[in-house]
Amino acid sequence: MSSVEYHYPVIGRKGTGGIFDRLPIQTLEKDHPYQFALFILAFNAIQQRPDAPQVVEEPAATFMEIASIHGKPYVEWAGDRNKDISADYSANDKKDTNPVPSRFGGYCNHGAVVFPTWHRPYVMLIEQSIGNIAEKLAQDIEANNPHENGVWIKAAKELRFPYWDWAGKDVPENGLPPVLYEEKVEIMAIGGKKQIVHNPLSYFSYVGGVPSDFSDEKDDSTGQVAYFSKWQRTYRYASSTPDPEGSRTDLLQKTFKAGANDLRRRVAQLFTFNDDENSAIAWDDFSNHTAESKRDIDFINRGSLEGVHDTVHILLGGNGQMAYPDYAGFDPIFFLHHSNVDRLFALWEWCYTEYWMGSGYEQDGEQYPWTQARGTYAQVYNEQLLPDGALQPFRTGQRDYWTSSQARFLHKQSYPKYYSFPEFEGIKVDQAAVSSQERASARKRVQAYYDFDPQTKAKQVTSQAWKHLPVPNKEDPAVPSDHTVIPHYRTFGVYVKLPEHAYNRSYSFQLHHKGNAHSSPQLVGTITVFARPDHSPCKACAVRREAGSIVRGLIPIPPELIESIIRSNGGGESGVSFDQTLAHIKGEFVGRLVDATGSELAGAEGGLEVTQIPQHRAAARRVTPVEISLVSAAVAEHVEDKNRPVYLCDWQHHNSIFNGGWLATHKDSE
Q1: pLDDT single digits (tens) 290-311
Q2: Are 137 and 55 in contact (CB under 8 A)?
Q3: 333-351 and 305-317 helices cross at what angle (nearest 10)?
Q4: In the list 42, 74, 445, 659, which could disulfide-bond 133, CB 3.0-4.6 Å?
């Protein structure tokens, strides 16, 4: 609590004359030189660099303050000073620090249904801060250079915070664009000249020194250290030293490219929800990686927006701030990442207008509320989450807190946000669809863009090899009456459930294919636990820390890989059963648990006939994945309208992949 009441409202780019698009960062740099120049100059200004324009007038709008909202330091944001908010986190209060896990002291909402809606005003805040500075810079330029009139101010008013589509078609080949990591950048200057300035997207140097509650994270087994208490700036894939020379961009690029195809497939899966889902449960599945409404018996899963987001954090961070929730907000790339997360949210809510969190969900006739299990700086443990609940610390122009209901949608009938995104596969998110048919057709195009197109894939596979795969007949109640099932074709995935605090830090499950006569060894996909360390007073609390805290996800298996496995094991010859094919698929997979730096923590061999790991070498129960199972679904297409998206049905659970147990390859797994 504060002695002085002060509120800095988040109103976005209100007063700039309209709704303008957030552009891809590459487009902003290449095609909008005046906007890009103002964006870079203004971003440098709010980072308070000594060589940047000194025009920041609101302490709450500096980058240091905005970044600190997400996690550490666990303090009240300068833009929301309150005298009477009793839920404030305190590092000196045992009710916040002594529970296991301890209460989260940042404001961000993770593992909850408000994950997409909370981050929307957060990105609007930095958009507002940069935009306001850009306008002041533009006014000064035109006032002192009359021949530049009509150019800079117009560019400033149209400027919106850019995004980077980390699942774009070019990413598997190109990785990150240079503008996201090069430390210098060329921008437009007065008179059409060019100048080289510091690139504020590459890293951020802390203002006033490293915050006092930043602490190092050390792996005693490998000696790897993230020196958060000593690093004066942000890094990506930093060397384990208190004074790295810089980010290891080559390792970042290599790692990101390797994971890019999986990101594309997982984004596509987000748009495969059918039209007849339960509204609240569909929202829960999509919005967050915890999926509070899921029961132990539930396995149908399309992954979640938060789950894909988690993996991007680890891929971008390595031994750096982006891989740790407490520090991620200080890396400038965080906001370009979240601008893209917001774009995907906008596309999804445009396609699935009726799916929404509501006041809770129903199971077996009982009503259950949504909750924020871990608490935040402004929320107590297990606080109920409602559509009209406060998204602290963000206040509207009326000084009330933003709500999830207000954060929904970008169309003209929604609460004003003053930004949109460029048209994507026929979707303009600031213009509501006129019919369910329009939304459905667009959904199919989004799926195809991100490489989910089973109707085309089914024609490309070897029909002889797939002919033994079972599918339901048209009369099956799982198949809609106006659909027909694609014969001898199923889509496969790996359903993953991981204990959130198994390693007391971020970690990932990686699914690898061993390779066969028709396919090279490859990383198939990743599910990430994006978790903060919880330094509890006793290590014996680790088991209790796990109770009820599970991260869920789905790794889609490319049909080309399924084809190679079938062909390498008989090619669907007469007599090969579906059960045998399932065993072949499992037998060609390897599982790895790895930390944010890629160091292996535990490993497992897939298949039914693998040797059981001896108990003295097996990973401890507290770190062992709760479930990693093979699942599949049949694919039904509309009888008449081939432009409608497919309908996934006849979901089947094919049991565990790693039956031999997990080998502890790191002391933290023992």
Answers
A1: 888 887 778 788 999 999 999 9
A2: yes
A3: 160
A4: 42
pLDDT tens string 537-568: 333 334 434 445 899 999 999 999 999 999 99
- Contact call for residues 451 and 268 (beta carbons, < 8 A): yes
CA–CA gap between residue 594 and residue 601 (Å, rounded):
5
Say whether 386 sits in a helix, a strand or coil: coil
| Phi, psi values for residue 326, rounded to 5° | -65, -25
**Closest among 255, 266, 635 to 450, alpha carbons compared:** 266
CA dist 585 to 200, 261, 572, 654, Å? 46, 20, 13, 11
**Mean per-residue pLDDT for 635-651?**
94
Residues across the chain: 670
User: 21 in the Ramachandran plot: left (φ > 0), alpha (ψ -120 to 50) or beta?
Assistant: beta
- Residue 184 CB neighbours (<10 A): 9
Closest CA to 631 of 299, 291, 307: 299
Q: Which of 136, 169, 160, 191 is nearest to 35 (CA)?
A: 160
- Rounded to two decimals, the pTM is 0.95
Q: What residue spans of 179-300 are helical by DSSP H?
A: 249-269, 279-287
> What phi and psi values does residue 469 have, to the nearest 5 degrees?
-75, 125
Confirm if 321 and 234 have CB atoms less than 8 A apart.
yes
Residue corresponding to tokens 């899963």 = 301
Q: Are 201 and 43 in contact (CB under 8 A)?
A: yes
Name the token pair of 17.
Answer: 């004359």
Q: Which two tokens stand for residue 400?
A: 């009330």
Query: Is the link from the previous residue into 393 a cis peptide, with omega within 30 of 0?
Result: yes
Do residues 585 and 565 make contact, with C-beta atoms less than 8 angstroms apart?
yes
DSSP 611-646: PPPPGGGBPPTTTS-SEEEEEEEEEEEESS-TTSPP
| Distance, CA of 66 to CA of 43 (rounded, Å) | 12
Say if CB 407 and CB 416 are below 8 A apart.
Answer: no
Query: What stretches of 449-588 adopt beta strand conformation (E)?
Result: 483-499, 507-513, 522-529, 550-557
Angle between helical axes of 305-317 and 249-269 (0-180°, round to 10): 170
Q: Are 455 and 646 in contact (CB under 8 A)?
A: yes
Can you spell out the DSSP letters for 433-481?
Answer: -SSHHHHHHHHHHHHHHTT--HHHHHHHS-HHHHTT-----TTSTTS-T
| CA 136, chain centre distance (Å) | 33
- What would the pLDDT profile of 107-161 be if each residue is shown by its tens digit? 878 888 999 999 999 999 999 999 999 999 999 999 999 999 999 999 999 999 9
DSSP class of residue 163 equals B
Compute the radius of gyration of the chain from its Cα atoms. Answer: 25
Burial of 596: CB neighbours in 10 Å, binned 0-12, 13-18, 19+: buried
Quick check: helix, strand or coil at residue 666? coil
Beta-carbon neighbour count of residue 632 at 10 Å?
A: 21
556 pairs with which residues across the strands? Answer: 493
CA angle 596, 600, 606 (to 5 degrees): 120
Q: Do 214 and 327 contact (CB within 8 A), yes or no?
A: yes
pLDDT tens digits for 338-357? 999 999 999 999 999 999 99
Handedness of CA 389, 394, 395, 396 (dihedral sign): negative
What is the enclosing helix (H) or strand (E) of 29?
Answer: helix 25-31
DSSP 328-351: GGGSTHHHHHHHHHHHHHHHHHHH
E-state strands within 19-135: 20-21, 80-81
At residue 610, the 3 state secondary structure works out as coil
For 425-442, what is the HEC assignment?
CCECCCCCCCCHHHHHHH
Antiparallel, parallel or unpaired: β 419-420 and 20-21: parallel
